[in-house]
Amino acid sequence: MASISSLGVGSGLDIRDLVDQLVAAEREPGQQRIDRQESRLEAQVSGLGKLQGAVSDFGSALGNVSGESDFRSVEAASNNESAVTVSANRDAPPGSYDVNVTQLAQAQRIATNSDLFEDVEDFSAGTTSLGTGTFTITLGEGDDAVTETFRLEEGADTLQDVRSAINNESEFLRASVVDDGEGPRLVFTSREPGQANAVTAIEVDADDDEGDALLERLAFDAASLDDPDEDGVRAGDNFSQLREAQNAELFVDGLRITRPTNEISGVIDGVTLTLNAVDQARVNVTQEPGAAESAVRDFVEAYNSLQRTLGDLNAFDPESGEAGELKGDSTLRSVQSRMRQLISEPVPGAEGAVRTLADLGITTQRDGTLEINDSRLEDALNENRLDVVRLFTDSENGITARLQDAVDEFTGRDSVINNRTESLQDRLAALAPQQERLDMRMDRLEARLIRQFSAMDSMIAQMNQTSEFLDNQLGLLNQQ
């Protein structure tokens, strides 16, 4: 049989092109059907993804009108920020408070005495061995005290090695070695302020049983500290306290408050005070106007954004003939119907003058979006503010709670959108075997056409050869 490359040699026809055209003509109806189904299914999957995203975004926006604090905005200010700065969350109640800062919290700092190693010839913080062993530092007192234990090994047992061990391993202390002109001194500073973070003892357990190790000199007992000198320094046997750990102390409207830090919370509801200096300040917490109106308007805009997306997915342009990805889709209609129902119906059990969004001057337009009557909204907030807030925030029957339930229903793991998407993806996957069967059928058709045209080509080639032979024979007879 003639090869594909020699097709048409006998007949002079472009058989390869003829076979391709016949196969393409046979493939076209089936391929178009598969392509149309694939395009339609992919568009629906894409549309459902957009639908789910829009509903999820709306659900996130509902979080901004779910609590009473979402309808109020609070501003906190201090008339003396050099002494006290202030911040407040939306739950802070309005009020004015007198704050008198009498003491700032500060971290403890202790240092080895300048003469601690004066009897050691050529003492060096980086080379002189203190000896191996462990030292345990206690911070705080009583049941709340904490301890940290560190070990020095041979070859890594200098004053600088003590500093490195503290900085690398301690949660509560920073260490440094400072030479004040009289020799190196080891300095410990608490990482956090407050009395609970002060070093109260250092116990040393040197490996040298004879007690000659220099490491023994790092023992400390806060009870051994003398009274402070004129610089406030309290000297002890081995260490001196350069700065005492202390808690912050302040009076808020005459009530004494102490804290281990200069960030004070829990004294005034929803308010955090930052103490900067010993002085007095007046703190004012005020409620800013317009927060409730902004919350309502943001809700309306979020709902309208959802409705615009739904409208685009269900749109049809008669001029271009183009339709939205979910035109006429039952899932889309279900979302639209449910949302519009919840928006328009009264809140069950609501009392007073505000029971629906319409009572706020919020009405539904023909395209499903909401429109606000500014004057009616302003009147409702001025005259029935609490009813407006309850309309949205009631935990069981409020608009936000009911809409959030609908959002969860449409976007949850077993939601109608997810189930529908999975079904469409299964149908998309089912197109692959159809494509394979079509390709196989076209391959068989191509092979059959090639066999048939090859046979025809060979026959024509033989006939041409016979005709040529007869022509030659007739030519010889005519010459005789």
UniProtKB/TrEMBL annotation:
One of its GO terms (biological process) is cell adhesion. GO terms for cellular component: bacterial-type flagellum filament cap; bacterial-type flagellum hook; extracellular region. Residues 11-108 form the Flagellar hook-associated protein 2 N-terminal domain. Keywords: Bacterial flagellum, Cell projection, Cilium, Coiled coil, Flagellum, Secreted. Residues 245-465 form the Flagellar hook-associated protein 2 C-terminal domain. It comes from the Bacteria. It is found in: Secreted; Bacterial flagellum. It holds the Pfam family FliD_N. Homopentamer. Belongs to the FliD family. Required for morphogenesis and for the elongation of the flagellar filament by facilitating polymerization of the flagellin monomers at the tip of growing filament. Forms a capping structure, which prevents flagellin subunits (transported through the central channel of the flagellum) from leaking out without polymerization at the distal end. This is Flagellar hook-associated protein 2. It comes from Alkalispirillum mobile.
